[in-house]
Amino acid sequence: MRRPLLLSLMLVACPLAARAQTLAPSASATPTPSASPTGDYCSNGGLSAVVSRPTQTNSACVVSPGHVLIESGWQSQTVAGGSGGLTYQSVPNATIRIASPLRDLEMQIVPPTAYRVEGSSATGDVGIGLKWQIAATPTFAYGVSASSSLVTGTNPLTNPGGLGSATVPTENYGAQFAWQLGKVFGLSGGVELSELAAPLATGAQHYASALPSLVLSDALPASWSLFVEGFTQSHGEGPGTPTHVWGDGGVSKDIGPAQLDLEYGASNALVVAPALPAVRRHYVGAGLSYQF
How far is Cα of residue 243 from the mean position of the Cα atoms in its chain? Predict the structure, then answer.
């Protein structure tokens, strides 16, 4: 999880991005299987095999050569603690995913996300990343990814929700898999390892977080799909805090080169310190992904 590895990947990505231009959380949705499996999981599944929204689990498949995939969405999350709560909205939560000239490698650009809470607004950081689809069979695929943020967002100490930038670059490394189970069910999952920073008045406090996840999905007629997911997040409320346990579920619909999604998720009640009330989070969201 060191910066030299990520920086070397970025040096490869930058010149490729200039040539390829023509950024969860759906990968978690089971692709509609063909009558007799041929080719590989990623090509058989079409758009549903590639999109990472709306699950925490990211896709194991990369964007097909010559294409760009834009994933975006809106989310409203409530943080409830004690007798009060805080609700904030975020949009576009976008990732632009660009197929590179190198086979099975894609580049990712994460535009800034805008947050709105209690009459105050903030913006998150820009991010860049790479995803490598290591292998794919007719029923199985796996890959790895790496990304880093750039310090471009709002100082979180200036708004009520503490939203915005981490004030220092943060890094994320992941491994993902997807497995077709028979004709309609699919299982996907992964683990994300993050090097994060909690912004404090005295400076950023660095900490690490692990986020394993597992998704069960069900392909329905007419390109509909349902999913349920579980994942945990170590240090779920910042450095030194316990692990959050999350569950979410939703539905997606493929319409040609686009995919629509709706989802809901909630965490357990987490006591972050003996003198503080328990914190619970829940959210609703909707999204649109489009490939061209």
Answer: 19
CA dist., res. 134 & res. 263, Å (int): 29
Burial (0-12, 13-18, 19+ Cβ within 10 Å), 8: exposed
Mind listing the pLDDT tens digit for each residue in 70-109? Answer: 999 999 999 987 667 899 999 999 999 999 999 999 999 9
Q: Domain-by-domain residue ranges, the chain?
A: 3-291
Burial class (CB in 10 A: 0-12, 13-18, 19+), 201: exposed
Which one, of 238, 150, 235, 149, lies nearest residue 199 by Cα? Answer: 238
266 token code pair: 């909630």
* pTM of the shown model: 0.84
pLDDT digits (tens, 9 = 90+) for 38-68: 579 998 888 999 999 999 999 999 999 999 9
Assigned CATH for 3-291: 2.40.160.40
Radius of gyration of the chain (CA): 19
Tokens found for residue 144: 């790895």
